[in-house]
Write a structure and sequence with these properties.
The structure is a homotrimer.
Chain A: H1 13-28, H2 33-36, E1 44-49, H3 55-66, E2 70-74, H4 84-96, E3 101-106, H5 111-115, E4 123-128, H6 134-148, E5 155-159, H7 166-178, E6 181-185, E7 199-201, H8 204-207, E8 213-216, H9 231-238, H10 242-245, E9 253-255, H11 268-271, H12 278-298
Parallel strand pairs in A: 1-2, 1-3, 3-4, 5-6, 5-8, 6-7, 8-9
Helix pairs in contact in A: 1-6, 1-12, 3-12, 6-7, 6-12
Chain lengths: ~300, ~300, ~300
């Protein structure tokens, strides 16, 4: 059976936990190539990004190479790609060319649902639409698990443009699977319309002292030109900085999916603060993606 | 002696047939890396495409990697490349850098003839000018041979912009080598001025019931803006669709080099029709290019 | 200790000479993969070029692959890269992703000095600012050493836009280390303000008969539009051509870092003249970069 990696929501808790443990194995053995460089030998993945990405694309490429696989970077020509069907033809072409899996990013929220039943190779969601970014979700879970040794009951404040954030989307999915509590913070206009026992809106300053982690989201200044968003005002109201860090629990951590705007959603001195795990997240991202690629090819590891 | 792969016309029938057989070997062993991944180990190819390509470029890249070779994608900067001499300098540079072969695409019909005597490494034509696309020709021959167990005497209708098609060019060359019959179909203005015992103009609807294969060519809508070409009218007159498919022989096949315009030269339902071999062609393309790369490096295999 | 490769000036003579000897080893064994393809196995380098480059980028990529390493090409998005800090974040990201070294090019003269103390992986200068291009310097030294069996006492005329040339910059550094004599030739406006026992301004025609090598620099026509530089006049005054070649010593050689403008700083017939080592330099460039990559990862080889 083809194992598509589309959403964390398709995983039962035990399977998702197995994936986190496998990612932890890769984290621990990242500098021991002899233990991992044969696992996906002779496999070829295609990176197919219809939206720009350097971080996620490189992360998947490095993950594949560390497992002994190779990567073909397929750069879609915008000119010949205008309809959903043509995306299908592109992916079907790569399937025909013999690649073993497709790492895929696209702006459309629903394209993966349409495509996956028609493909005979694993499709790996590297960020589709504004709903989910499940490999980011996995690396966030890995980071939290490394820190706290558990996931159940953890409280995380997510602050920023939650409405348009795939990262927040996958974290909310994970919260429901593992019983975490997510507080959504930020400007009212950027909040999604969700509320249940795992996810609720909250005042940022009020929850900062209570949570185990704050996940700061990048303010996409280029998208909010007409929002009249002033970086300094935003930072004062919703940014992570020393005054908020001092309110955090001593063992609470600061997360950010990157890239970050220093001085907007996070102050310069917080990026590499002792409580920040931002670059740790990036490192974990490679381990998480190794687990995803291996799972997609070999089936879930227990 | 340097083995350039420039045109099918340089191959005696027996050598070209050996190449098809070698491609068939790679087709059959495409999922058995242990049998093939050492054949071009430690070789490095450069992909040098002066015209855009994703399909052919990826196909060669995957072919190289399946044989254990590596690929450097050299993206010519249009700014520094204005004269034929500079193309020479670029290729001579890559030769000096130690690459073992150059996979090359360029708009100029004659540039390969000028360049090849001056280079000390194999030059592989991945589409030069409008004359030939010999690795595409090889994959088409492989597809026909797999289907019919022979090439001599096969009848193929090629329909579309034959005049500007490298694909048709290489198929016509192959027809003369193997004794196939090619019928050229499509608008009068897009027909080349050729006619001999192997190649002749024909009415599409008249030959469809007689041929073993129809090769549909992509209508390059972007090139024919001033041709006043109406996609629907074109489709009615020259497109592959169910009504024409029903006229075909039961064992005849539909070919297309891709990418295709669904609804223009081929209807949506024909692309993956039981008689279509379009995605099979793409799969065969990797096998054919493995044979080409190996031949260029090691010399012709018997 | 992290071994950054930033400038030739940081090397004592004996260490730099060891690096030349190691490059010579790679030159001699470039066609014997079994002797070299394991040396950097399982390492991953990132090519990070903030300025366009095909030659140097490919050269490093091929060097890495010949040593068994892999390369990720990170293409900085100009839009998200506007401040020095963000370059830092980009490199820190790649460090976090687990790459083993960064091959780096940037327009800023001083960015490497700012960055290197903050990074925990080797940073390799592939041309930063207008000051140095040390891997080019190393390949030039290798080429001179192969030719003359020594470096001390050699006389080299460097002709062209010396002021903006990284290549000249690294050669001048090397001259001071090995006791070579560099004559700077070209239009007055393109001369730097330097003069010591190793480097002095000179009249091109006057020194051509005396030197062991002439290093022709590319006239960056695109930069000198307002200079009112006439290619023909320039060639007559400062170009390498047959009449000047005839004045050279019989064993003197012609160098050029490439890419070259045929007919401007060098005439067509001089590029591959028997006394030219221009394509040899490119070949040596791969060997030199293998030595650099290995040195950066493993520490200096004796």
């Amino acid at each position: 059976m083809i194992k598509h990696f589309l959403s964390l929501s398709s995983f039962p808790q035990s399977d998702l936990f197995s994936l986190i443990q496998r990612a932890q194995f890769f984290f621990l053995n990242q500098h021991q190539p002899d233990k991992i460089n044969h696992l996906l030998k002779d496999r070829i993945f295609a990176n197919v990004f219809y939206e720009p990405s350097t971080r996620t694309r490189c992360s998947f490429e490095i993950a594949a190479k560390k497992l002994g696989a190779d990567v073909v970077n397929f750069v879609p020509e915008n000119s010949s790609v205008k309809k959903g069907e043509t995306v299908y033809d592109t992916l079907k072409t790569l399937e025909s060319l013999g690649v073993n899996g497709i790492v895929f990013r696209h702006a459309d929220d629903h394209i993966l649902d349409l495509l996956q039943p028609q493909l005979k190779l694993p499709l790996i969601n590297a960020g589709a639409g504004k709903n989910e970014h499940p490999s980011q979700g996995l690396l966030d879970l890995l980071t939290l698990f490394q820190e706290f040794g558990k996931l159940e009951g953890l409280k995380v404040a997510v602050c920023g443009d939650v409405k348009h954030s795939r990262v927040a989307g996958s974290l909310m999915v994970a919260a429901r699977i593992f019983g975490m509590k997510i507080y959504l913070c930020g400007p009212q206009s950027l909040m999604p319309d969700v509320s249940d026992q795992y996810v609720e809106r909250a005042d940022f300053d009020k929850v900062v002292p209570e949570v185990d982690a704050v996940m700061m989201l990048r303010i996409q200044l280029e998208r909010h030109e007409n929002l009249d968003l002033n970086p300094k005002t935003y930072h004062d109201e919703f940014g992570m900085n020393q005054s908020r860090q001092l309110l955090m629990k001593k063992n609470a951590i600061i997360l950010h999916p990157g890239p970050f705007n220093r001085g907007v959603e996070i102050s310069d001195d917080m990026v590499e603060h002792a409580q920040s795990r931002i670059f740790k997240q990036m490192n974990n991202g490679v381990a998480a993606r190794m687990a995803v690629l291996e799972w997609a090819i070999n089936g879930s590891k227990k």
